[in-house]
Write a structure and sequence with these properties.
Elements: H1 2-18, H2 22-42, E1 52-59, E2 61-64, E3 67-69, E4 72-82, E5 93-105, E6 108-116, E7 123-131, E8 136-144, E9 150-159, E10 163-167, H3 177-195, H4 214-237, E11 242-250, E12 259-268, E13 274-283, E14 287-295, E15 302-311, E16 314-322, E17 328-333, H5 342-362
Antiparallel strand pairs: 1-4, 1-11, 2-3, 4-5, 5-6, 6-7, 7-8, 8-9, 9-10, 11-12, 12-13, 13-14, 14-15, 15-16, 16-17
Length: 363
């Protein structure tokens, strides 16, 4: 019965919003925006665990020996958590309420904000400000209703130091209401993929490649691992690094220690970048988990995983080696139980999906 009334209340709320005048909808959106900005400012303060995720993409290029072209993107997500069942301590439900982006490349920069409805998560407002190295500035604001329809827009252009003036939507070609809504959906899809187990089952494609002997395969993997580690050290010192770092602060259980997750991708700069190494680190006051995923330089498929878990002073390690067709051929561990390497393959596939989404989003 309680579920029925909750559904009825939500339906009535939606009808109320849909029946509002344009002025009332804009007033509501601006009030929600103000509340969201205050939530962002208070995130992690007053003894509360922070709930946020930051994605940093660095993918520049060397134009010549003396000229490096930087290209960096930062995307910030802010979200809330709540219980699905009131009698449990698990905060299973999550809701992203605000997304911001900042991009810079050789004197050009762009910032974005996306405001989500706190009731059902649909896009309410999109803001963009872009500036060229010549000082030309474009600002746009798009307001949407519950069905995703544009209800109001504001466009301003001008030059740095001279102020901005309101102009028509046809005064520039930087974006429009549809392109901003598409960008919002791309970023939200990445967030949801990272926060859920969506798309994990049935993720491994069967291949029938010829395989080397076990001894030769293990030797090749260990050589590739050493080369990858060397490339990572070089990347950290490079003027134009090629890596992605994702840091998430989360709280999944009420009255439990918050956790921090750091996910690092390292990739080669190509027309379509290929990831060669991923590291994953989850830590809290209660436990610590570190993982590595190595990918074959030719097939770009998973070839090796390493995991190290530490809890209550006990440390365990697992190593899985895979042949050219993704079959586990060697398992090493100091734990009493050791798996078959399948769950590690599933996790690697999830992280690669996120990588592909991020790379496609920035190409």
């Amino acid at each position: 019965m309680r579920t029925f009334f909750v559904i009825l209340f939500c339906c009535l709320m939606n009808l109320t919003v849909l029946g509002q005048s344009k002025a009332d909808q804009l007033k509501r959106i601006r009030a929600i925006y103000s509340q969201a900005k205050q939530q962002v400012a208070n995130n992690g303060k007053d003894g509360q665990a922070p709930l946020d995720m930051n994605i940093h993409v660095s993918n520049g290029s060397m134009v010549s020996e003396d000229f490096a072209l930087d290209d960096e993107t930062d995307v910030h997500y802010y979200f809330t958590r709540s219980k699905k069942e009131p009698d449990t301590d698990f905060l299973e439900q999550f809701s992203c309420y605000f997304i911001s982006e900042y991009w810079t490349s050789h004197g050009h920069d762009r910032s974005r904000e996306f405001l989500l409805d706190p009731e059902d998560g649909h896009l309410l407002f999109a803001y963009m400000r872009g500036e060229t190295d010549a000082g030309f500035i474009v600002e746009t604001r798009y307001y949407y209703d519950a069905k995703g329809n544009l209800i109001h827009q504001i466009h301003k252009t001008g030059n740095e130091g001279q102020g901005l003036s309101e102009t028509s939507p046809n005064s520039h070609s930087w974006n429009d209401a549809n392109s901003e809504r598409k960008k919002y959906q791309e970023y939200l899809d990445i967030f949801n993929r990272l926060m859920t187990h969506e798309g994990l089952l049935g993720s491994s494609n069967e291949t029938h490649r010829s395989t080397a002997s076990k001894a030769d395969r293990l030797k090749s993997i260990r050589s590739t691992y050493a080369e990858a580690k060397q490339k990572i050290e070089q990347d950290k010192k490079s003027e134009v690094p090629h890596n992605i770092t994702i840091v998430c602060h989360d709280l999944k259980i009420e009255n439990y220690a918050p956790e921090t997750i750091e996910l690092n991708y390292y990739f080669d700069q190509e027309e379509h970048p290929k990831c060669y190494f991923i590291s994953y680190h989850k830590s809290s006051m209660m436990f610590d988990l570190y993982e590595e995923y190595l990918f074959d330089p030719k097939t770009h498929d998973l070839s090796f995983t390493y995991s190290r878990g530490r809890e209550e002073g006990v440390e365990r390690e697992w190593r899985y080696y895979y042949n050219e067709n993704g079959h586990c051929i060697e398992r090493l561990s100091n734990a009493e139980e050791i798996g078959d390497g399948y769950s590690e393959k599933v996790a690697a596939n999830k992280y690669l999906q996120v990588f592909r989404m991020l790379v496609d989003n920035n190409e």
